[in-house]
Amino acid sequence: MNQGEWLNQQAASRGIELSGEQLDQFQRYYELLIQKNKVMNLTAITDQHEVYVKHFFDSLTIAPSLSLNQVERIIDVGTGAGFPGIPLKIAFPHLKLVLLDSLKKRVGFLQEVATALGLKQVECIHGRAEELAHQAKYRQTFDLATARAVARLNILAEYCLPFVKVGGHFVAMKGAAVQEEVQEAKQALHILGKASLSTVSLELPEGMGTRHLLILKKRDNSPKAYPRRAGIPAKQPIV
């Protein structure tokens, strides 16, 4: 079984249908990732099957927990090499995707990927969440924000919840240990949008790791003061 067939089976078992064209896009994405990784640090994982499990499939695990067919606008904050944003866009082409990263070279790579894969309605932005979230075009305009383990939850919430419209969701993708983070983030989640939180635990195939999806539903507007200016959320987290 090749990697595309493997991904197709895993996705189908979770209610995600992938066409031959979409599987080709995943393969091309892998090739571009490995090629660019030779000249810049995008991922420590380069084995093809591991990339398919720990990057591609892992990114798609959001889908069974949210009705992505009902989601229109999504922002992936601190997207890095494009996870989970690009795999979600490949699987759900209707999504209007913003990929945000603070490193210009990575943003250039993401633009190359979007062009090579023929992905429409993908905006790659070089910038910081603390600044972009104060722009009217982006503030509280997204149905879904995602972030994949770029900071602790109380910090991530300050970066991401201001992008989310009331009634929308923010999903923080985390590893095995999350309870302490959830406890310390309670005040931040209340301040930043009276967000409710549910946790989904899952195991990656073939024993490749435990994951937690921290799914926040935003129930109120984020105060205008948040996010605070660049660097402050990480240095002085809300506790």
Automatic annotation (TrEMBL):
<feature type="binding site">
    <location>
        <position position="148"/>
    </location>
    <ligand>
        <name>S-adenosyl-L-methionine</name>
    </ligand>
</feature>
<dbReference type="Pfam" id="PF02527">
    <property type="entry name" value="GidB"/>
</dbReference>
<dbReference type="GO" id="GO:0005829">
    <property type="term" value="C:cytosol"/>
</dbReference>
<comment type="function">
    <text>Specifically methylates the N7 position of guanine in position 535 of 16S rRNA.</text>
</comment>
<keyword id="KW-0963">Cytoplasm</keyword>
<dbReference type="InterPro" id="IPR029063">
    <property type="entry name" value="SAM-dependent_MTases_sf"/>
</dbReference>
<keyword id="KW-0698">rRNA processing</keyword>
<feature type="binding site">
    <location>
        <position position="78"/>
    </location>
    <ligand>
        <name>S-adenosyl-L-methionine</name>
    </ligand>
</feature>
<keyword id="KW-0949">S-adenosyl-L-methionine</keyword>
<comment type="similarity">
    <text>Belongs to the methyltransferase superfamily. RNA methyltransferase RsmG family.</text>
</comment>
<dbReference type="GO" id="GO:0070043">
    <property type="term" value="F:rRNA (guanine-N7-)-methyltransferase activity"/>
</dbReference>
<dbReference type="InterPro" id="IPR003682">
    <property type="entry name" value="rRNA_ssu_MeTfrase_G"/>
</dbReference>
<keyword id="KW-0808">Transferase</keyword>
<feature type="binding site">
    <location>
        <begin position="129"/>
        <end position="130"/>
    </location>
    <ligand>
        <name>S-adenosyl-L-methionine</name>
    </ligand>
</feature>
<keyword id="KW-0489">Methyltransferase</keyword>
<feature type="binding site">
    <location>
        <position position="83"/>
    </location>
    <ligand>
        <name>S-adenosyl-L-methionine</name>
    </ligand>
</feature>
<protein>
    <recommendedName>
        <fullName>Ribosomal RNA small subunit methyltransferase G</fullName>
        <ecNumber>2.1.1.-</ecNumber>
    </recommendedName>
</protein>
